[in-house]
Write a structure and sequence with these properties.
The complex is a heterodimer. By secondary structure, chain A is an alpha/beta fold. In chain A, 38% of the residues lie in helices and 22% in strands. The two termini of chain A are 27 Å apart. The chains are: A alpha/beta, B mainly alpha. The complex binds adenosine-5'-triphosphate and magnesium ion (MG).
Chain lengths: 342, 656
């Protein structure tokens, strides 16, 4: 996934809340823990985070409440100024942008859905959705047209003249989603965008974003507390704790090889067979001859369970999408994953 | 030196706050007892030591006025204002100025008011708004009322705009806010005479000066509300604005200001009410209108007509207040998609049509155009007779005469003489003790400085007379207002209507309160105290009720379960928790009292108010300012102490 030119690249980004944070950070010793920083009177909302996000990637950020997910995303969009480090978007350090350039960047490239929606209370649904278009100076007719399109897409047809206070939480959230859809930005920041939606609409929305990502190659940074959602969407998952990214990897690797104890605990409850794909367990066979029916590389172990139990070969051949043999999977290893023994 | 200092502070540190308070208070009493032995400067600041602030200020003003050429600037401003005022004056009461199309017939204005009332809150509001104007026309006070309204129509939008701009600046630049806040709090306590004189000197006499004074008087709350509202805009809304790529101007115009709508409209309500209150008072500098008429009627003791004008002013106040408050809570309503323009703007169209129809009607029916003297329904003479008959009733005269006698001989005069007798040093020490008890060293120091400055101005005795009127009235108001408030709060059936009455009474321009005072006690100290008393009882009652009712119901249930009787519950639970809120009411009562005592000057008191009023005749701006500052400093000292106490108490109780 690691493109040579990442869309967003951040290097040891810090965000401390508290007076004179920059001065403190500059004089701070390396390797201070979250607690130590707190004793000094600062909250380390983002702690030494380095991430590269490739074009067309969907990065999901997870972590407990207060672990700094929203703050990290705000650093990436420069809604807040970082205390230390560097954030580059398309190779441009966004801390160097002046006001005009920043506005331009946001108008042309970025969109965001906010955790608590951030709807303008005095505007109708339609006006809220059309707001970013209005800021860009699009003419009235065009922006109404476009706004109506996305309102339909999120299923709020017929409510376009309502005010936010007249909508339920889930409906308000969909207005927020529609507002960011209206401009189809290249880079999308979604802060728990579906938290208030019912399962049906949630699934529809997930599909919509997957579609956009696939067809239009959008880059998406997605925050969620829901592991299932993360699995459906994520190319990679970043797990945060106390402001630091503990591990950032594909779902399989996170589950299979947790980098820290915290990540292990975080993923403990998850049924691994649902996450792990055959491909991950596949090893090269070095000319070894394999017999019989092959299995598909992007099937999860759970999906293969019937086959695993029924089969009696030790090594199963694995083929990729195009039907080319890529190696073999040890059946016992796969069964261990399925039974949760590891 | 350093060692001595640490030792001293160490010693102070080891004394409790109560001990220091007792020490300061004891010292104050000792000073009073050994008055004959005290050095002169502790009794009264000797004349040689009095600083000629007034002359310094006068020189400063003259310098600004003449040498810096401020006068040309202000005259420029006044010609612009005059232009606006001429327009409203022409439209509302037909002053012969450009655009020479007025006056608008009263029916048209009443009808439009009714439509606006309906739009904001339905039939009842329509009735109130329309009815007020009908009353004003029928009672024969149309022209007076329109003279007053024509100034408000210019002053309120101006004050709104200036307040809004200053508020935005204060929100944007913290440094500007820090600079402007103390100025605003001084402005809010300065007696209104201090607004009037500079207005007269820098701007021409008449409507322009009145308008300027009114604008300045109405600005502070607008600034405060704007800043408050802008600060309260939720940060995700702000961030949504940023992420949409808004420029600074777009942020302000499309995000901040609309999102702060509620607070800004509350500011508008306050601006309108303060404009009305002040515009009535500009009668003192010869502004024609309701205030001037009321002043002259009260001077000649024409109680019936005063009463009618009082009703007019009250009705206008209530209407303006209710209309603007309805605007605050009115939320935009949505129409279904595809609703036609005509349906969406139904009321606007109805309003315009009604306006045009009434104008046409007025061309043919004279009564609809204006009400002549013979046609009006004023019954001033009859009311006069009725009032006199009621007041001549033996029981009432008996009671008022006795009250007057009792209060004057046994309460007011002794108290006043005592205050005047007390050495300056003793009063300042007592105030310091008070300040120390509440807010520690800083508060004590502040109070000492404030009162020290007053002593140095040489207006100590007059200040004490002012203080005496304020304190006696507020004590009486407390004795009446708090028990009434408590009684009302305990019975929900009563508290609602009483709160409504208080709310309404607070919108009346202060001038109104003089009418019953003069009716009952004619012109003397008792009338002054009485006027302040009713004016100050209102906030006391209101905050008492609100404080008691705000006590969380779980606490009351807990007390019930602990087996507390009604009285125990009141004394042990409700009152202690309500006390901080009640203190806010007490503070407001004192501020109102300082305001009222100055107005009452025209009844003929001997306090600062009277001196202030005298300065209006000449153009002694320096002295005017010094006197104004004396009042302001006293008010600020009380304000500081009480609010400090209330906030500390709140924190200690863990509420707010
Ligand atoms: N403006 C601020 N000032 C001070 N501290 C802040 C501020 N914003 C966030 N924090 C702190 O930073 C930490 C991270 O907050 P953040 O909102 O990023 O958490 P989160 O991971 O998004 O949590 P949640 O899942 O509840 O949304 C928290 O401890 C929070 O208290
Ligand atoms: Mg968050």
């Amino acid at each position: 996934m690691n493109d040579i030119n990442p869309v967003i690249s951040c290097k040891s980004v810090w965000k401390l809340f508290g007076g004179n944070a920059e001065k403190y950070l500059a004089s701070m010793k390396k390797g201070q823990s979250f607690e130590q920083i707190r004793q000094a009177g600062y909250i380390a909302a983002v702690r030494d985070v380095s991430l590269d996000i490739a074009r067309g990637e969907m990065l999901v950020i997870m972590g407990l409440s207060g672990s700094g997910k929203s703050t990290l995303v705000r650093c990436l969009s420069r809604l807040i100024d970082i205390t230390g480090g560097e954030v580059k978007v398309d190779g441009q350090d966004i801390m160097d942008l002046n006001e005009r350039e920043l506005i331009d960047l946001r108008r042309k490239k970025m969109g965001m859905v906010f955790q608590s929606f951030g709807l303008l209370p005095h505007r109708t649904v339609l006006e809220n959705v059309a707001f970013p278009l209005e800021m860009r100076g699009q003419d009235r007719h065009d922006r109404r047209e476009r706004a109506m399109e996305v309102i339909k897409l999120v299923g709020l047809e017929g409510r376009e003249e309502y005010f936010p206070r007249e909508l339920s939480g889930g409906q308000q959230q969909r207005v927020g989603i529609a507002r960011s859809l209206a401009i189809e930005p290249d880079i999308w920041f979604l802060d728990e965008p579906f938290s208030a939606l019912d399962p049906l609409i949630r699934r529809e929305m997930q599909d919509e974003f997957l579609r956009l990502q696939e067809i239009l190659g959008k880059t998406i940074v997605f925050i969620t507390h829901d592991f299932d959602e993360a699995l459906r969407l994520a190319d990679r998952i970043a797990i945060m704790k106390d402001g630091a990214v503990e591990q950032c990897d594909t779902p399989d690797k996170i589950v299979l090889n947790p980098a820290t104890e915290y990540v292990a605990k975080f993923t403990e409850e998850i049924e691994k067979s649902r996450v792990i794909h055959a491909e991950v367990l596949t090893k090269p066979i070095n000319g070894y001859k394999l017999e019989g029916a092959s299995i598909s590389a992007d099937a999860t172990i759970l999906q293969l369970s019937r086959q695993l139990i029924g089969d009696n070969r030790d090594i199963l051949p694995v083929t990729n999408k195009d039907g080319v043999l890529i190696g073999g999977m040890n059946r016992q290893e796969a069964l261990n994953v399925l039974l949760g023994e590891n | 030196m350093a060692i001595v200092e640490t030792r001293l502070t160490g010693k102070i540190g080891s004394l409790t706050r109560l001990q220091i308070t007792q020490f300061l208070f004891g010292l104050a009493i000792i000073f009073a007892i050994i008055k004959p032995l005290l050095p002169e400067f502790l009794v009264r600041i000797p004349v040689e030591m009095i600083l000629p602030y007034d002359i310094w200020l006068q020189t400063l003003f003259d310098f600004i006025k003449d040498d810096l050429g401020l006068l040309t600037v202000t005259r420029g401003i006044s010609s612009v204002l005059e232009w606006f005022l001429d327009i409203t004056a022409n439209l509302l009461y037909g002053k012969r100025r450009w655009p020479n199309i007025g006056p608008v017939p009263w029916v048209a204005i009443a009808v439009v008011a009714a439509v606006i009332g309906f739009w904001l809150k339905g039939w009842k509001m329509a009735l109130l708004a329309g009815g007020t104007f009908v009353w004003v026309a029928l009672i024969g006070q149309w022209k007076l009322a329109m003279q007053t309204m024509s100034v408000i129509a210019v002053a309120a939008p101006m004050a709104f705009l200036i307040g809004l701009l200053l508020g935005i600046c204060a929100w944007k630049y913290p440094r500007f806010q820090r600079a402007i806040m103390p100025v605003l709090s001084i402005l809010q306590t300065l007696p209104f005479f201090t607004y009037l004189l500079p207005a007269v000197i820098f701007f021409k006499v008449g409507p322009t000066a009145g308008c300027i004074a009114t604008i300045i008087y109405a600005i502070p709350p607008m600034v405060l509300m704007t800043t408050l509202g802008l600060k309260k805009v939720s940060h995700e809304v702000v961030e949504a604005g940023h992420m949409s790529g808004s420029t600074r101007w777009q942020m302000l115009r499309y995000v901040y200001l609309p999102a702060a709508r509620t607070e800004i409209l509350v500011g508008v309500n306050q601006v309108i009410m303060l404009c009305l209150a002040m515009v009535v008072l500009t009668a003192f500098i010869g502004m024609p209108g309701l205030g001037a008429k009321l002043l002259s009627l009260m001077n000649s003791l024409k109680l019936g007509r005063s009463f009618e004008i009082g009703i007019t002013i009250v009705l206008i106040a209530v209407t303006l207040d209710r209309l603007s408050k309805a605007w605050v809570v009115k939320q935009p309503e949505h129409f279904e998609r595809g609703t036609s323009w005509f349906v969406r703007h139904k009321l606007l169209i109805i309003g315009i049509i009604a306006f045009i129809v009434s104008i046409i009607l007025a061309q043919f029916v004279q009564v609809a155009d204006h009400i002549t003297r013979k046609q009006d329904l004023s019954m001033g003479k009859d009311i006069d007779n009725v009032i006199r008959a009621i007041l001549a009733n033996d029981i009432i005269t008996g009671v008022t005469d006795w009250l007057r006698w009792f209060l004057i001989t046994w309460v007011l005069i002794p108290f006043r003489n005592a205050l005047l007798w007390l050495p300056t040093g003793s009063v300042i020490l007592a105030m310091a003790a008070f300040g120390y008890f509440v807010g520690g060293r800083k508060s004590a120091l502040l109070v000492v400085i404030f009162f020290g400055v007053i002593a140095l101005t040489g207006w100590w005795d007059r200040s004490m007379i002012t203080l005496y009127a304020v304190i006696s009235a507020v004590i009486l108001a407390t004795l009446i207002g708090i028990p009434l408030g408590i009684a009302a709060a305990r019975n929900p059936k009563w508290s609602e209507p009483i709160l409504l009455v208080c709310d309404t009474a607070q919108t009346f321009p202060s001038f109104i309160y003089l009418i019953p005072a003069i009716m009952l006690f004619s012109v003397n100290d008792v009338a002054v105290v009485f006027a302040i008393l009713i004016f100050a009882t209102v906030p006391l009652m209101r905050y008492t009720i609100e404080g008691i009712r705000a006590v969380p119901s779980e606490l009351l249930e807990a007390a019930d379960m602990a087996g507390a009787t009604r009285n125990q519950k009141l004394l042990k639970v409700q009152l202690p928790l309500a006390l901080p809120t009640m203190a806010v009411g007490f503070n407001q009562a004192i501020m109102f009292a300082f305001f009222m005592v100055i107005i009452a000057a025209f009844i003929g008191t001997q306090d600062l108010g009277q001196e202030l009023q005298k300065t209006l005749a000449g153009n002694n701006l320096g002295k005017n300012f010094v006197l104004g500052m004396c009042v302001s400093l006293m008010a600020l000292a009380f304000n500081h102490i009480i609010m400090r106490w209330s906030n500390d108490r709140r924190k200690a109780l863990g509420v707010g």
